[in-house]
Design brief:
The complex is a heterodimer of chains A (about 190) and B (about 475).
Chain A: H1 3-21, E1 36-37, E2 40-51, H2 52-55, E3 65-72, H3 79-84, E4 85-96, E5 102-110, E6 115-123, E7 131-139, H4 144-148, E8 150-159, E9 173-184, E10 186-187
Chain B: H1 5-14, E1 48-51, E2 58-64, H2 69-73, H3 80-90, E3 96-111, E4 119-134, H4 137-145, E5 155-156, E6 161-177, E7 182-199, E8 203-210, E9 216-229, H5 232-235, H6 241-256, E10 258-272, E11 275-282, E12 286-289, E13 293-304, E14 307-308, H7 312-316, H8 323-334, E15 337-340, E16 344-347, E17 351-360, E18 380-391, E19 394-407, E20 411-420, E21 426-435, E22 438-444, E23 458-469
Antiparallel strand pairs in B: 1-3, 1-23, 2-3, 2-23, 3-4, 4-6, 5-8, 6-7, 7-9, 7-10, 8-9, 9-13, 10-11, 10-12, 11-17, 12-16, 13-15, 17-18, 18-19, 19-20, 20-21, 21-22, 22-23
The chains are: A alpha+beta (about 190), B alpha+beta (about 475).
């Protein structure tokens, strides 16, 4: 065996050791199965500005009156939301500058119009200051499946009997702001 | 608003490896015929060579700046999601994850005679895959935290910057030695792109701010486009299994893909026996994508505070419009989601190599050995190399110091120390062996991390077999 071939053998040995010696150690790729992230998404939902002058169109409104509106709010039927939504928290904030009491009800409905949840909120008359009523409604992990069926939302505004009677020139508004805070859990499954 | 999970996965798991295309060990290692691929003016120590088909040049390189496989998958009992969190807050939008792979299918070169004496011709085919991603920092934060803790902070869509391609390269190179001091070379390339996806020119923001009529105002300004070629045919319904995919790719690997042209050029200048200077410019090229193109765009601007219930309509219009559907229609009108099939053009990443080399040591005479054309060449070299590569948001740079030693007929070695964004401790070793006209070479960098590659931010390996006709 000549010198070159000896060198050659040594090199191949070195290369072999080199390649075998390299490795990926102390790692556990199965950890990826634990992957989970928990983003919190906050979005505005419904809002309105109901003017006292609009309520004033209801004839003889000192005896009371009712306005109701339903809208589609198909936020939860998306498969991604369906799979990953863990908890939800809604904030409804009424601001009343009308000197009359309102009994409001927010109703969550499924596709067929069946009631899922009824949220009554009393909004008292404002005197000199705007009357701000903030209500937080939480759907925890055990209740979230109910929310996922929601496709429509209805708001009923019951003007309670009382004075002054409102007309088309009455000042003031009943405002609603609302938002939803959605806690997601996106995992590796 | 929500980033789908696969995007995250892709980001993480490609984020664990990165390869750079800096071939600091191969550059100027003229005992290895493949060095002519990184400098068309590399003066090979061979009259002719041919690569053993499919085994002559196998190259892989992966790199990930600022994070390694170890950081994410170390088996240390720390909660995996804590590590994910650490990485999300550590990485910036200029951190990159990259992989490059090349396999030579054919590589042949020979010295020309007659009126083309002092000229060298080489040609061949190689296959290349290249993936280059900038960490989508803001999108990862949005996916990780959601918008809730980030009211008022815009999420930047330009952080989405990714490019991947799979192509075959046909090339022919010509080299001319003008005199003892000066050699130039160039190489023409035809690219046949099998698959391409490019999304590198995005802009826009998604911001949640405090609203006026409602609690929050959500604003999306978007100018985002993902261009693809070669993907739709692979994902079509009638494509069944790996066999079909490979069949389609094989067809495109020849000239059936989207074609492009490119150019390499290089010089070697040796003013005296002690000094050598080299430079090369690679892949000055363009690919025209016209077959099987799909481009997805999301361009528009929209602000939203939720759904307004227009109670006034009850009285004035006698009913209520479908607010939800109106909103959905409005948003869809604001962001026309187009799928275009018009042609597009991509540029290959241009690479620049330069080196200054000092040669020293006792020259060998013909009696000492049969040094295969190394007569008159000094056995030791030290030098510096600078590598630059043009990428969408950055010029990737690497500085290398090296020592080269010729150990007689059978063995030549080159060691390198390289500094780049991935590592400040990158030591490389290259071996080129010659036995019975067979050449085997092995080049590997990041040897310090070689004992546990999981810790490496960056590693490359190149090896191959050639048959050489010596002088």
């Amino acid at each position: 065996m000549g010198v070159p071939s000896k060198i050659f053998s040594i090199i191949f040995l070195l290369v072999g050791v080199f390649l075998l010696g390299s490795c990926v150690r102390d790692v556990d790729f199965d950890q990826a199965e634990d992957f989970a992230i928990t983003p919190v998404v906050e979005v505005s939902i419904l809002y309105f500005d109901l003017k006292a002058a609009t309520v004033g169109k209801i004839p003889s409104n000192n005896a009371g009156g009712e306005i109701e509106e339903t809208t589609r709010l198909d936020m939860f039927s998306d498969p991604f939301v369906e799979e990953n939504l863990q908890e939800a928290q809604f904030t409804f904030e009424f601001t009343n500058t009308i000197p009359r009491n309102f009994s409001t009800t927010i109703i969550l409905l499924d596709e067929a119009g069946n009631e899922l949840r009824r949220i009554p909120i009393f909004v008292g008359a404002s005197s000199t200051q705007p009357n701000v009523v903030r209500t937080i409604v939480t759907f925890n992990e055990s209740e979230i499946d109910l929310l996922k069926q929601m496709e429509n939302i209805s708001i009923a505004l019951m003007l309670e009997p009382g004075n002054p009677e409102l007309d088309t020139n009455s000042p003031g508004d009943l405002l609603l702001k609302s938002s939803g805070k959605f806690f997601l859990n996106i995992d590796a499954d | 608003m929500l980033i789908s999970r696969w995007v995250l996965y892709l980001a993480f798991f490609t984020g664990t490896v990165s390869i750079a295309q800096n071939k600091q060990l191969l550059y100027n290692f003229t005992d290895i015929p493949q060095s002519i691929m990184v400098n068309p003016a590399a003066e090979l120590n061979a009259k002719a060579y041919f690569g053993i088909p499919a085994l002559s040049g196998i190259y892989v390189h992966a790199g990930s700046s600022n994070v390694s496989v170890y950081d994410l998958f170390l088996d240390d009992g720390v909660d995996f999601n804590t590590k994910v969190e650490n990485i999300i807050y550590r990485l910036g939008s200029n951190d990159v994850q990259r992989i490059n792979e090349q396999v030579e299918i054919l590589n042949i070169g020979f010295k020309l005679g007659g009126r083309f004496s002092n000229s060298f011709l080489s040609f061949g085919v190689y296959q290349e895959a290249d993936f280059f991603n900038y960490w989508p920092k803001d999108l990862s934060i949005l996916a990780y935290e959601g918008n809730s803790p980030n009211i008022g902070n815009p999420f930047r869509l330009d952080h989405l910057n990714v490019k991947g391609e799979l192509l075959t390269v046909f090339h022919v190179g010509f080299q001319k030695k003008i005199n003892d001091k000066f050699t130039y070379g160039f190489r023409a390339k035809i690219y046949s792109s099998m698959v391409d996806f490019t999304s590198t020119k995005n802009s826009g923001t998604f911001t949640t701010t405090l609203g006026e009529d409602n609690f929050y105002r959500h604003t999306l300004l978007s100018n985002v486009e993902v261009k693809t070629s070669g993907l739709t045919a692979l994902t079509a319904d009638d494509v069944d299994g790996t066999g079909d995919v490979l069949g389609i790719l094989r067809n495109r690997a020849l000239f059936g893909g989207n074609l492009g042209i490119g150019f390499d050029a290089g010089v070697t200048y040796t003013p005296n026996e002690n000094w050598t200077y080299t430079a090369s410019l690679l892949d000055l090229g363009v690919i025209f994508h016209s077959k099987d193109v799909e481009r997805y765009t999301l361009n528009g601007a929209y602000s939203l505070e939720g759904i307004e219930l227009p109670f006034d309509d009850i009285f004035t219009n006698g009913g209520i419009a479908d607010n939800w559907q109106d909103l959905v229609d409005e948003i869809e009108a604001a962001f026309p989601r187009d799928t275009l099939t018009s042609a597009y053009t991509t540029f290959r990443p241009i690479k620049l190599n330069t080196a200054a080399i000092y040669n020293f040591g006792r020259q060998r005479s013909a009696e000492d050995c049969s040094c295969m054309g190394n007569l008159g060449k000094k056995p030791n070299s030290i030098g510096m190399q600078l590598y630059l590569e043009n990428r969408p948001k950055s010029i990737e740079a690497a500085l290398t110091a090296f020592y080269y030693r010729r150990l007689g007929r059978a063995l030549n070695i080159k060691t390198t120390y390289t500094v780049d964004r991935f590592s400040k401790t990158n030591i490389g070793l290259g071996l080129s062996t010659h036995f019975a006209n067979f050449n085997f070479y092995l080049l590997a960098d990041n040897l310090i991390e070689y004992a546990n590659l999981a810790k490496a931010n960056n590693a490359s390996l190149q090896l191959g077999f050639n048959y050489i006709f010596p002088y």
